[in-house]
Records
---
Amino acid sequence: MHEDDEIPIETATLPLDGWHRARGGRMVEFAGYWMPIQYEGIMAEHLWTRENAGLFDVSHMGQLALSGEGVAAALETLVPGDISALKPGRMRYSLLLGEDGGILDDLMITNEGDQIGIVANGAVKWDDIAHLRENLPDPITLNHKDDHGLLALQGPKAVTALSRLVPEAAGLVFMQAATATWNGHAIALSRSGYTGEDGFEISLPNAALESFADTLCAMEEVKPIGLGARDSLRLEAGLPLYGHDLDETTDPVEGDLAFAISKRRREDGGFPGAARILGHLADGSPRKRVGLLVDGKMPVREGAKLFDGNTEIGVVTSGGFAPSVGAPIAMGYVPAGLSEPGTALAAEVRGKRVACTVAAMPFIPHRYVRKQGA
Amino acid sequence: MPRYYTEEHEWIDVDGDVATVGITDFAQGQLGDIVFVEVPDTGAELSQGGDAAVVESVKAASDVYAPVDGTVTEGNAQLEEDPALVNSDPEGEGWFFRMTLADKSQLDGLMDAKAYKAFCDAL
């Protein structure tokens, strides 16, 4: 190899790198960072989160803030959500769309009062920043909050645990956000996450991360959970992973994310790829993301081809053993005519055909807290 | 009964002309929770270093290689029902398959327990 062949990009470390290692986290490279894939084991961590509360370090994700006159309307030229109607303290799932309506990233967008907060996927956050900067008017300020980490506390006991430190947590419902103070640090929290469970995401200054994580993990309800369980939890919840289940060739209707196209935007358009996307909304898309229940025990993973009889009709985009289901599950893309739950298909694994059935998602019911006192 | 180890973390117990093969405790610890094992069919011809079996953890599928040349005489049917045996007893009940030895001299190139431990410690 010649010295000038390539510039090696060094894998970055998270602010909690030492904390993960001290707790026995097995570190792997993900999205350009060293991240813990597991501590005691993916299966145990997955089941713990469904029953108790799991603490995930998702500080690799991009935390952005947009501000300036007309920021909501400006952002609406790039995403299909009704950002103007988003009230302070409310958030929604949205999609950054390319010119042809393909998905550049999936995002959480929050009205933080004086600014719009965005959480972007770690693997594409630099591309997102470049895209936003290039396409938003100059007076809009884009701030990358890289001096903040992001923790997710997920599971049915998350509210009990977090409320001890941040009483405001208990007052929120799903997709609501607030600011608070913990030990003199300004923090932001939202009742959201990507496991299908009730839970919170908490943004803190880097300097506060370790003591906050330590304090939570000292509680009997809370254990640190790695990326491996995060992946199996979101798969069971039917939630797509960008770069696997969604990419720039996929539009929101194909990705089964039509809910992210707000009513007003369906009527008015004005987002990238509106012609294609509104056409797919009206007439259906030729292909669609579906869930798959797999017969037997052999996992069917990303890249497995899908067959209807002897005809190759699609591909699996993520899959694996689902600890709470107790069987392998997958998601993938199939033609619209084969997307009805109950449709019998087959996946090819190492040259063998495995029977699978199109299934409604989520595989494990969501347990979001949508109303106070409910 | 002598036991040998490969750099790919398989173990092989030799008993006359027949051998039993599995993956080491170190390997199962690295893989994590095992959810599926595909053992070779009886009669399959294996060659040293070639694919012999597949072991799948929650996260990923990994190949298990043949430590020597030979013919498969039996796969461990218990692993179909209970793949977690590979986690709980990797170097006992969690064996993968039995095989004949086509060329016993190949064993000379493998490690003994002491050498394998030193190999793992250096990883």
Note: Strands of chain B lie at 3-5, 10-15, 18-23, 34-38, 45-46, 51-57, 61-65, 70-75, 97-100.
---
Amino acid sequence: MPLTKVRTLRSLIGFLLIIVSVFSIPLSASAAPLKIAYSDWPGWIAWEIGIRKGWFQEAGVDVEFLWFDYVPSMDAYVSGNVDAVCMTNGDALVTGATGKPSVGILINDFSNGNDMVVAAPTIRTMADLKGRKVGLEMGFVPHLLFLTGLEKAGLSEADVEIVNTPTNETPQVLASGAVSAIAAWQPNSGQALKALNGSHPIFTSADAPGIIYDLLYVSAESLEKRRADWLKVVEVWYRIVDFIRDDANLDEALAILASRVKVSPQEYEPFLKGTYILSLKEALERWKPGSGLGSVYGSTEYVDAFNLKYGVYSESQPAAKYLDPSLTEEVAKMRGM
Amino acid sequence: MRSILSGWFKVREDLPPGRRTLLTVLSFLIPIGLWCFVSYTPWIWHPEIKLQISAEREGVTTVYVAGDRLSREFFPEFVAAVRAENDTIRAARDSGSVADTSARSARRRNLKILRQLAPVGLAHGWMTRDSSTDDAAIYRLWRDLATGARVATRPALTAENLEIVRDNWAILERHSPTFAYGQLPTEPLLKLVPQGVPANPVYLPAPHEVLAAGWHDFTHQPEDGSPSMGDRVATSIRIIFLGFVISCAVGVPLGILCGTFDTFSRLFEPFIDFFRYLPAPTFSTLLVAIFLAHDAPKIALVFVGTFFQMVLVVAKTTRLLDRSLLEAAQTLGARPRQLISRVVVPGILPDLYNDLRILLGWAWTWLVIAELIGVKTGLTEFIETQGRFRNFDRVFPVIILIGIIGFTTDQILAWLRGVFFPWTGHGGPASRAVARGLVWLPSTIIESARDRAEAMHNRASSP
């Protein structure tokens, strides 16, 4: 009898091992598609149109888009889990200076109001925030926007108390009354506006246009090895842009975009205005080196100086190292522009 | 009468079966009853207004849609803003001045006004969720409401809104009797004034709302290509199962060794005791860095969350084994290896089974955190995204589902305990019968196999 018990035990263990191995088969990935981390900014949600419509397959490029919260998406890039990540030009510098450098090959858009500082009803201007608490994700783009707004209002960072808050939790934090204002981008800022009735934007990226560009940043290694594939990705992007910018497609595009972030198309429609998606021609203009905020180079230099001033990192980051307009230019050439 | 009331409070004595069942049912009915009471009695609480008809305001990016809740203080402001816009339009009409917006944006604006009625059509079942953006159907709805062919009852249109419907339809009819985008008027239509009903905060939806949302989510394939609820359940169960099985595969043997031999106990338990106080979620970013972004870090987190507890619990259970059993076996000449395989393991199996049942409950707790690290997946991803957008009517069914899965699994496992270990006396008549049935076939096979082996052995040993 004991002998049979040992046997049953053995067969039980064998059975468990079989189950484990059966379940773990799907875990092992086989092919190596280009892995791109994207998050909930309207300019990047736009990739969803290409994904849903199968345009990447049509272009013959194997891509895998991975949906993250914004800061975790950059963590995933730094840890080498993805080949590319959607970031703002400022956060690319932060990620590069503190983790892993990257090369921006494609400008999706510039923020035109969708990044905002949302304040409780009693706060009317940025200056009213003196001595108050503000919830935002420190060291990243909302921080940059907020400090820019403070500077314009004649205040400095020391005049307010910043509470480090993940951007996707800012709506709840504002609604709870724990802070007087938050800084966030759409759709989070919109959720915050709805979560606290009567709250309103007191400073937005439309007040400082060109301070935030949104790009696709690729690791230098992947760009070198698989440049042809990345070129196809850029091509698909401009197909997406043409689609979105055609008014006849507005309702279809809204349905796709809104469903990705689970809001209704009506709620999503105002986001389109706050994120200026650049056409190929407009993008080429922004790619021209220059010192103003109308150029992605100028904007990046501005943010670099800003980051140094606030000690986000300690060594100046050369803008040219982070930007490569050649793929966009090639696509323009292919289209005979 | 006396007999019904008496006998409920006897110190340490079981109630009769009928009363026990009654109380079990009540333990579920009372919370549900309270929930219904708070939800369906309009004068209790209800601090907010739930919109049935909403409107967009000019120059404001915040768009409230039907179903959103506004505070009672803010709702009048919202209504006043829309009325003011209508007044401006009426004033412009009276003075004959023409709005200078482009035809394109004017049509888009009017289209949005038309769609204000979609929630009304939806509430009456005149439209389905899928056809709620069918502009032609919405156009017909405007016609029918204006002519009185259909009358809205839930919600009923206010006199003010009914007049606006007729007013707008008069303009629409002039341009086209059926919907055509290019035929929409470019002169501004009047906006429907927002209507709403008192409601509880969004985090306490009414039971019927939860049921309706749950029914929709569980039966419809989401159109955005995200996984269906069935797939989500499968993903979650797979992660929990793998994490738990791997944890058992290592933790149970280690726990038994620690419980049996003091050497192993001294060597492993102090560190494990220390490690179990390190909160598992703090390892999440580390695990993502090691195992990349798919399921592996999640499984690892469930493992980290359960493994250390498991070793300690199993070791403790092993130590509780009746010492006299071991002594008896030793007197009969059992060696240490035999002691483990033939006395310790069989001896603790029923208690071990119970330990694992409880630890499986723990694993569910870790699952919720595990699914949020890296790429969010499974049921928790749904809870998280819907919760973030404050769709709590869609969150509750999933939370309840997790509860049901956990509860039924546990009930089944508890029942199976009677099947596996009939001698512990925890089974009812049914499980004992099943146990006998289960044992009968294998034992017959084993018996006959052993007889044959013995016969062969005898033949081989006899020259």
Note: The CA atoms of residues 210 and 393 of chain B lie 5 Å apart.
---
Amino acid sequence: MSGRDQIPLLDVRNLTKYFAVRGGLLRRVVAQVRAVDGVSLSIGKGRTYGLVGESGCGKSTLGRAILRLHEPTSGEVLLDGHDILKLRRSELIDRRRRMQVIFQDPFASLSPRRTVAQIIREPLDVHRIGTAAEREERVIALLDDVGMGAEIRDRYPHEFSGGQRQRIGIARALALEPDFIVADEPVSALDVSVQSQVLNLIAGLKKTRGIAFLFISHDLAVIQHVSDEIGVMYLGRLVEHALVDDLYAAPKHPYTKALMSAIPIPDPKTKRSRIILKGDVPSPMNPPSGCPFHTRCPDVMEICRSVVPATINVGRKDLPHHVSCHLYS
Amino acid sequence: MQADTQPLLSVRDLVIEFTTENGVVRAADGISFDVHENETLGIVGESGCGKTVTGLSILGLIPSPPGRVAGGSIRFMGRELVGLPDSEMRNIRGRDISMIFQEPMTALNPVFTVGNQMTDVLRRHRGLTRRQARDAAIEMLAKVGIPVPAKRIDEYPHQLSGGMRQRVMIAMALSCDPKLLIADEPTTALDVTTQAQVLEQIAGLQSEFKMAVVLITHDLGIVAETCRRAIVMYCGRIVENAAIERLFEAPRHPYAKGLLESIPRLRRERLDELPIIPGRVPNLLHLPPGCRFAARCPRADALCREQSPALVPAGPHGDFIACHHPHPGQQAEPAA
């Protein structure tokens, strides 16, 4: 989709992830939660794809399904053209060297019983990279890369603040020199003054190392700063995708517009009309017929209730802007 | 602090301490501010700055032990609340002063229906019968925009969505027509589109019920849109107290300025680097002797590292600041 590269680094095609809901005496499958429902996206080398949506829209599940941390139900995930969903366990572990993850909660994602050096060295140990001395050296270099000193190597995670822990998590993700990192809400547990420090660090890594990111966030303001292109998710589907500046200058989908207008602006002089959506997000166990957004959409039409809108390009051929909405078909 | 009207709530030199394994921590240290009738006052700051304990102390809800109000005064409608016996505090809590919390799932009791919990308050404070209380509760639920309130009233909290639960909390808090509502991060657990719904609701109800609101939040966007005045807290202290337009246009305390600049916000042009506040918040157990922000402050000098600045009036408009070297205000204001 990004057009410039012949083969994108990562190509996700029609990916679905359903979770079975079991109930009754026999624990039979009584329903399916369609967490990810036919998502296609591609990420070029060194590019950052921002994935935005509210809780329960399936954005984290999508990130995990791409890494096979959740086994996808169907679809393809091509890394350099090879489908990683077809790999056997042993092959997958080898391929995972190139794909890493940074989690949201720096308090839950670092083992409290390991020192900083052990945490960062673990991927090197698992993949048997270098000698012991080389691994030690690498740990110090990684700490330096994320702006921390070598003197902390023997300390434990509980001694650090949220922002520092997140830096340690990032150093661990960098240890194997991956081409691609899924960053799942990496700053949402942090205080504002620390958020920007970590965002700058991630933006810098992308620039200096050419790492591609899938950056997952619920916050349109955060995601704008780090992304090249953005996909907006609602109830398991991508409803809009565009280059970052296009999306912010001219959002097309009514959901994207509502999401943008809902962000409080830190300037008391800005007065604007806010689109207040009615009601709540429907359950992904029982998604509405037709367009998934039609129950809350301010521009809903008759067709939206019955027909799922196709994804069309409303931008230029070389600068695509994809939207799934009947208003544009 | 404004002489013409008696403030509804007046907090002076409030000190709140917690005893921990490693020593005594002052979570709030010398907090002073006023809240006037119908006013919305924001208290902003990052985690651990003392904004939540300040809110809790007004309702006498500091868990004790390990916490205690170690000094200062909280006057509400001329009555001193610090040291008030619990039996008397209970008459004020929920009737004259109400609170809504960040996490509606933990603030509601999971084993009672919504109606059960709402009528409790109404029967205690307004002396209604069971039937009257039920009708009043249904009316309140309708006011906060709960669809089919007569049915929802018999449901349990887990049957409601997050936005709906927070609305139930609001309905409960407002059911006795309080004079003051303390809202502690009321929308932090909600999605932005739901947050927009709930904030609109609170604003509408405030003008209908004519109550004052103390809104505690880390989100400066919410403060800008809902408050008339705001207090910025750092490390247990108030660093700046200013009218909202002034605070956002020309923040005077370097921390307030840094905080405003460093929030990720929608921008027309993307920046290469987001502005940051270097360093991090000091540990409350090992506070520096001088200004608590000095180590991160671009304007700090020897004086700041030695002597803690007091909170003093700034300008003629009821603003306050605690800084040895504040940024100049937007206009040449006569020295107070």
Note: The first helix of chain B runs from residue 51 to 58.
---
Amino acid sequence: MAKRKDDGIHISPKKLKTRDIHRTPVTRLDSTVDSLIFQQLELEHYVGKTYPGMPGAQLGLVPIMRMFGITENENSVCCHVHGFTPYLYVSLPDSFGEEDLSPFREKLNNVLRRDKDNFDSVLQIQIVQGKSLCDYNGDETSKFAKISVIQHGHVSAVKRILKSDRNLYHKTKDFIFEFFESNVDIETRFLVDTRIMGCAWIELPPGTWFMRGDQTTFRAVSRCQIEVDVSFSDLIAHKPEEQWAKVAPFRILSVDIECAGRKGIFPEPNIDPVIQIANIVKLHGAEEIFERNVFTLNTCAAIGHAEIHSYQKESDMLDAWAEFVRQLDPDILTGYNINNFDFPYLLDRAKHLGLKRFAYLGRITESPSIIKEVTLQTKFGKRKFKNINFEGRVQYDMHVVIKRDFKLRSYTLNNVSNEIMGEQKEDVHYSIITDLQNGDDQTRRRLAIYCLKDAELPLKLLDHVKSLTNDIEMARVTGVPLTSLLNKGEQVKVVAQLLRHARSAGYFIPAHEYAPSTDQYEGATVLEPKTGYYKDPIATLDFSSLYPSIMIAHNLCYTTLIRPNKVNSFNLTKDQITTTPSGNHFVKASVRKGLLPQILEQLLAARKKAKTLLKDEKDPVYQAVLNGRQLALKISANSVYGFTGAQVGKLPCLEISGSVTAYGREMIELTRSLVEQEYCIEKGHSSNAEVIYGDTDSVMVNFKAKDLETSMKLGKEAAEVISKKFISPIKLEFEKVYWPYLLINKKRYAGLYYTKTDKYDKMDCKGIETVRRDNCTLVVDVINTCLRTVSYVKQTISDLLQNNVDISQLVITKELTKNDEDYSAKQAHVELAKRLAKRDPASRGSNIFLENNDPIKSIIKTFYVLENNVPIDCSYYLENQLSKPLLRILGPVLGDNVESIILRGEHTRHRTKVTSKVGALAAFTQKKETCLGCRTVLKAEEEKEAVCQYCKPKEIDLYIQQVNHHKQLECRFSALFTECQRCQQSLHEEILCTSRDCPIFYIRKKVQMELETSKTKLCPIFYIRKKVQMELETSKTKLNRFGDSALMDEDFEDCD
Amino acid sequence: MPDTVVRTLATYKNLSSRFSRKTDDYNNQYYKIYNVRLSQMNVYLLEAIKRKWGDRFPVCKLYKLAEENEDICVVIGTLFKDQKLKPSVLKQLAESAQLMPQPILNHFTDDSDVFYIEDELQRFQLEGLANGKQLVTGITCALLGRDKGNGKFSVIDYTYADYRPQIERPILQNDMYVVLVSGLDLFHLEKSSLSVRLFSNWLSGYLGDINGINTEDIVRLIIAGNSVKTSSENEEVNFTMNVNINLSNDSIEAVRTLDSFLFELCQVINVDLMPGCKDPSNFVLPQKCFHHCLLPKSILYKTLNRVTNPYECEINGVRMLGTSGEPISDILKYSDITEPIEVLENCLKWNHLAPTAPDTLSCYPYYDSDPFILDDCPHILFCGNQEKFHTKIVQGAGGQNVRLICVPEFSTSFTACILNLKNLDCVPIVFNAD
């Protein structure tokens, strides 16, 4: 790029556009008259000295809770909450009385003191009356001891002692203690006891709180504007309703860094410098971006909408950036893959450069951020990730969020933004990044713009999927801190709810010890599908919230379960006990209302309320909040069932989950027989209804109606009639009609989805290869489309065999979820994915199957395949990928001879063999010109001609064919390249994008290559782009062989 | 009547060399053509700025806007119109996976369209661009306004490069006619065979004079594209990887008919044959002339002059420039201008023959020059394949007189246009067999 000339003199310095990024100053606060109200966002505990005048232990080091949040005025708050003591419950022998408390405590303390300091570790032991959550044991309460300890660590110490030391106290000799709630972490414990929900508004009434400052005895330790101390008993947590439903304007900082890597090597913090850091700041709920800037190493030309901070030394840049973060004081840090790349890289890099102050990025002044490796077991499998402490700031990595909430083929930012927002993003390959950095201020500007876009996209995603709003609501509904929604499993949410309800109902939750169990319960039922292709409308009847409803209707709970041996122990009559289809016994609600049903009823009622409110709400911000809430409530209600069935969970109870599914099965069966009894010719209907399939919570009914209206009418009617046969709140609802409907097998079906009679809503495909991730895109595309036409299938197969498909569609991605050792047999893609993971950890492995190679070698970079015309193993794709799904799906439509139609038809005869440009044989071959018509080798004297003498009469035909082909390629060439130009949002700058997730990338490349061939032949968007370019080249040469079209133009000039 | 009629002679010069190229290189991207266009137009725009505003306002590079303290200034750049309805390969690819039929649009403007101005380095969103509905992507212009920060530029006034100087038109003593037709659509000859016959007979002099026009004074026939076809049925462009060579060759017959048609005409008159987008030539502009192997009979006559699209020539000192109509049709799709003749006029003001190329109109990836820029003003500017005949004389501020002609499709209108080089009068003649 031409360097711009400095025209004229630089008189004025850059326009000072720097805005003040500090938070608004605190208006005067007087703790004696003012309440302090803030929305809590982060919570943690630390061990510190007691604060005078607070409840709890007065000596030694005690746990102190630290809450971070911001006020409505956007002032940051750090609130130290004192006096909260950790505790656990244990069962007691009946003989144990009040008089035993003191000696028992003494004994315990003596044992504990051996390995600890001089303080009493056990602060207090109380006798409390209550019931264990598990099993119905009559209405009698029994004795429990609440043992309060000074520090959280002592909880497990007490547990250990009571378990092992049988002779600790004479009255408990040989008594086997049962432990309750000993495995609850202190944060959850605190939130439950103080009734604080996640992200709740907290009010500290006047006179109860004490401000910290530079002068006070307890110095301020945080960077927050307001830092206070309060007793845990004084704070008020508001329910998130009415005025407290609002969300404070949290500062969200999105970050993206660029590193100057070396060719072919993924950047390493010990070697490769950080060259740019882009920052986008937004206030939650605001439309406009609050601040947009980029820190660059070396100069960078001005960018219209963003501020540039340039530094000559990397260390200066990093320090300045850290200072920027501290000044900005963000509440939420986001970005894409920041947890595993950007932040660890920055910290490691700063460490490597010896920057002492850099790591102090959190809100606690003297606490540096440190990277820890954590392995987490979630429902998605075992995952290793890095954990960094930024006290007071929530790390909200969109990569994690998207992985949690969406099932996508690939989780690169590009693919995610494409699939979720339909936006393509320019992707600059990291090898080019270094070149751009080493150019001039204009190339660095180019890089900065790219970097800014990468920082802005996660924010756009966050707004688009409303994940933060939804998560805040989830935190409020389930009462867990926001952070645990991202880095903890599903179960914490149910545990928190159970604890909250158990507390008020007088139950204690047993500390379940994880014991591997071989118990199995039968899963959901599936009615045997009557497979086939249905041309009649198929009505679908659904049970709404089936599992929660069953639990409520039949009062299934831990607290109502009666063990078989105790069925006769409590003088209960037969009417008071429900025996579930799976043979378990539960007492009825008339005897004792179960806790889970109560929780579920509340959740469902709250959801109903949220939905009603949502209908009337006009403000889009609150609409989003309410919608997030009703979603959170729905998910929570459904997760209760899963919790009882999770065998590695906190408190599995297979009796409950087994009963729930058993009821579900029974209900589906019942529904079937009811439908078939009611809607038959004998009852005056025109034909016999038939239930063709039923799954978990829905049944598909073929009323044999010929039109939508009738089918819908019957569906609605049937839902109402049948609902009456079930116990409230179980309800059958009519939801949709499929017409037509293709039922392939269990959980595999497709159809057009109607809820209105005039127009279908969508094409619904379940379990068909369209949504499975371990198939290549080609399969998805083909299956989707062939639902419409078989000829398309034939064409595609033919194209595949003729090497005429988009290479990007042949890429198979598989993700490794296990550790290396777990894969005993090393599959090819595992081996490759490992290799690739080293290079680019964010991606799933991309494989392409080539001809006659061992699989490991066959996996070469896609691009290489394209550029060198390496033959692709077409038969692999046809036989291993396409054939089975195709046969499955087309079987019901085409009948038995489907295989011969699809896989062995005329269209499979014509195959194209590609000659590789690389490989041993290529070196020995010599290219001879052949006749474009009949492909015979041209004689030496004919070599300049396009066709042989015998094809000469057909020359026009051949030319037109070739020119039409060339035309198509040219058309694609221009469409693709202009699209990329538009996508990168600049007409005047070169397209550098090499995004592998962009469908155009390959097409572009291919078109270019084809054009070269066609020119010599035309190209797709990168691969396609390239291919077209190559083909155009080919096409061009072929055309040229007909001779220059402009032949002898000059001769005709001045003709008269 | 004498036994031999001698056709009036005219001097002829083909000025289209910039539209033909020796080799094709598809390894270039399109950004180069925008850069070349901007730097070439920059010169013309600076003149225009001087004419319009004198030295009152400083001319500022876009990337300098953020650095300098100018309040009101002039910026020069290329317009980009971000249109949500603009067809997109990406959207098509995404939709191909869905089954929802997408509405087919032929006009892509919407109230949400946003304008940007862009130079080599920087892009600014425009606010207050009053005549946005008339504009399209690719126009190079100068805007007076101020930087509003946040990447936005507020427009107060604007200017285009405007008409280039025109060479003087020679004074002709006698009438001298050039006939223009387009869209013969010989593929569908059944609809128009009689009209084509009439037309050819007229040119050959068999019909005598019509409307007082001496047939022997007709010096040239220009066929402005789409002689073979005007529409193509199954030429739906899809953007998957595959390009299938279409083996059916239904247009061969039409090509043969064209050859015969030209074979007759070339015996009596000079014919300039321009390709159109549906003809068997390449797809991108400029289109190459018809290949000689397609016209084995007529090629023997020197009077057959195969030319490029766009095409520029000088006949007896009168400059003619025109296209087969693609740029005009394209601009109509992406702006709210309704009359093709108005688009032609605007092209003169914008000083560009095809501003929407390459964005929405395919063109060859030029890298060292933009052949679509008008370096001087023609006397006649025409475009082929329009729905109706339309003509107009426009005048430039520098005394330029330009005859604009929209040549209608012959296959539907049976109309040819007759232009008198002496006084630039232009009239249609309808060859309706009924």
Note: The mean pLDDT of chain A is 76.
